Amino acid sequence: MADSGNNGKLAAIFHNMAEIYRYLGSGERFRALAYDKASRVIASLPDDIGIYARGKKLDEIPGIGEGIAGKIEEYIATGTIKKYDELHKAVPFELLEMMDVTGFGPRSLKRIHSELKINTKEKLIEALNNGSIARMKGFGAKKVENMLRGLKLHKTVEDRMLLWEALQTGDRTLDKLKQLKQVKKAGLAGSLRRMKETIGDIDILAACEGKDRKKIVDFFTSPALAKYVIARGDTKASIVLKDNGRQVDLRLVDEDQWGSALQYFTGSKEHNIHLRTLARNKGYKISEYGLFTINDDLRVAGRAEEEIYKKLGLQIMPPEMREDKGEIELSAKGKIPELVSVADIKGDLHSHSVWSDGARTIDELAKYVRENYKYEYLVISDHSKSARIAGGMNEKEVLRQMKEIDRINNNLGAAFIKKGMEVDILPDGKLDMADEILSQLDWVTASVHSNFGKDNTGRIIGACQNRYVCCIGHPTGRLIGSREPYKVNMEEVFGAAKATGTALEINAQPQRMDLNDEMAMRARETGIALVITTDSHDLGQFAYMKAGVAIARRGWCKASNVLNTLSWNEVSRFAQKKRMKAKSPAPLL
After folding, report:
1. CA 387 centroid distance within chain
2. Alpha-carbon distances of 241 from 220, 235, 250, rounded to whole Å
3. What is the full per-residue pLDDT of the chain (589 aa) written as tens digits?
């Protein structure tokens, strides 16, 4: 997937323009919606926006009208947008950053700015804490408490990157370093190599000859990459990137130190402490420079990671497992599992089209996925009618969509597109679509999209009891940085899913990552079938599968734990088995 950074930067500008128009008032509502949509679409493009602009194909992108297309062309040509610069000066711009925080709407911010003359985030936080805002009419202690909670949540994405952003940033930077002939080997390290759901700084390790270190550090710290340099030395450097303001740390080693350095800088800290203790008990000491005997300081391993682990009597384990959660003990027994990989995935069971809130037609989705992924099937799972904000479908629209899918599959000469739905779970645990409709679908995902303030355990268990529900979507409802998980007893949900033969989803949308790795591990241990989906709303989002697989790998999942590593016939048998099983009462919690 090509990405020079233009998509991210332009998406951020349009997002900011949408926020500015939202701040300016209801009269600018439609402009705000247009720029918001353009921001989301551009962020999800599979190729750099410049390719579309140079090829005069901007009109082919959904949500890009003539006016916005002109601004894209202006940005590609000049690196700026004049209208954006004008708008930037017309509002208290630093305050607008707060509109991404739960609890901070445009009206509230406008009043705070107007009545308290506050222009900065720091002054706003001070006013929240000293009671100035609580004393304003219409605010009060409860609203201020919610605003402070929203700030605490948002700090996660201020201080850390979501995994998907970190992967894109890390891969871009790594690709540029690999173009230098002096770099013999290079790779990601740290928490990004372990694929944690949020990342602080990006760690890159490179191997080279000693005489070439300065040239590599010079390139890394040059204005071509660096907005500014935090530190630089002979073997390491830290910069803030020019294209997105994120910190990247580079460490240089000799080629024969590559394995030990990669192991050491991958971590985790807890894994490495355990490994050092084990090494010491066996008469060795371990560092980024290699594995050495304690008695005579003889270096016995270090060129490759496998050497380190093998010398200690261990089976090497995938980086995603290195959190000191029993992987070292498992490796000592030679029982590290072969974890699920992206190559194992045979289809995506959750995607959206223009029939609800997706950006593409089903034809476009089918064409793109067949050309870019070796999938055997793609489930279209548009929203049901209760999801009004997402353009949910009523019964008549669902039936029309089924006919449309039949037409598309007939043209393809293969039953590639499967009929599905993301059906809303109502507050009483029932679904907002009749069984008569659900029974005609190939795959049904049931999700909670409302009433987040209540305990949703019984609600989700009720959905599990419906014979047509194949899977529970994003089971905890969290959005990293903006919404905490709703209250739900996941142990009870696991019990109901197991008893009814209902799968649980690992939703790979960057803000969701739901189930998370710990929940995925618990579901696997309980014997519940998992599905990894992208919940795609545009073409570029199908690539999120890599992040979803990472969650499963961190949960120690094998291909056999994930339903969509199976052929469609086997997936369909799973759904049919659930329907047959639910005909008689199941022993539910």
Report:
1. 22
2. 10, 19, 12
3. 344 568 888 988 998 898 888 888 888 888 888 888 888 888 888 888 888 888 888 888 888 888 999 999 999 889 899 999 888 888 888 888 888 888 888 888 988 998 999 888 889 989 988 989 999 988 888 888 888 888 888 887 778 999 999 999 999 999 999 999 999 999 999 999 999 999 999 999 999 999 999 999 999 999 999 999 999 999 999 999 988 889 999 999 999 999 999 999 999 999 999 999 999 999 999 999 999 999 999 999 999 999 999 999 999 999 999 999 999 999 999 999 999 999 999 999 999 999 999 989 999 999 999 999 999 999 999 999 987 777 889 999 999 999 999 999 999 999 999 999 999 999 999 999 999 999 999 999 999 999 898 999 999 999 999 999 999 999 999 999 888 999 999 999 999 999 999 999 999 999 999 999 999 999 999 999 999 999 999 999 999 999 999 999 999 999 999 999 999 999 999 999 999 876 534 333 3
The CB-based long-range contact list for 543-547 (8 Å cut-off, 24+ gap) reads 543/1, 543/46, 544/164, 544/508, 544/509, 544/510, 545/342, 545/345, 545/348, 545/508, 546/167, 546/342, 546/508, 547/163, 547/164, 547/167, 547/195, 547/508, 547/510, 547/513
d(CA 476, CA 515): 7
Joined tokens for residue 381: 């799972």
Q: What gap in Å lies between CA 260 and CA 303, rounded to an integer?
A: 7
Residue with token string 């995603």: 320
Residues 6+ apart with CB under 8 A from 519: 475, 476, 490, 555
Q: Which residue type is seen at 167? A: L
Cα separation, 376 vs 417, whole angstroms: 9
Q: What gap in Å lies between CA 11 and CA 15, rounded to an integer?
A: 6
Query: Count of H helices and E strands in the chain?
Result: 24, 17
Regarding pTM above 0.85, the answer is: yes
Instruction: For residues 64 and 138, give the distance between their C-alpha atoms in angstroms, rounded to a whole number.
Output: 39
Write down all domains in the chain, each with its CATH number in brackets.
6-157 (1.10.150.110), 161-253 (3.30.460.10), 258-332 (3.30.210.10), 342-581 (3.20.20.140)
What's the CA gap between 416 and 497, in Å, rounded? 28
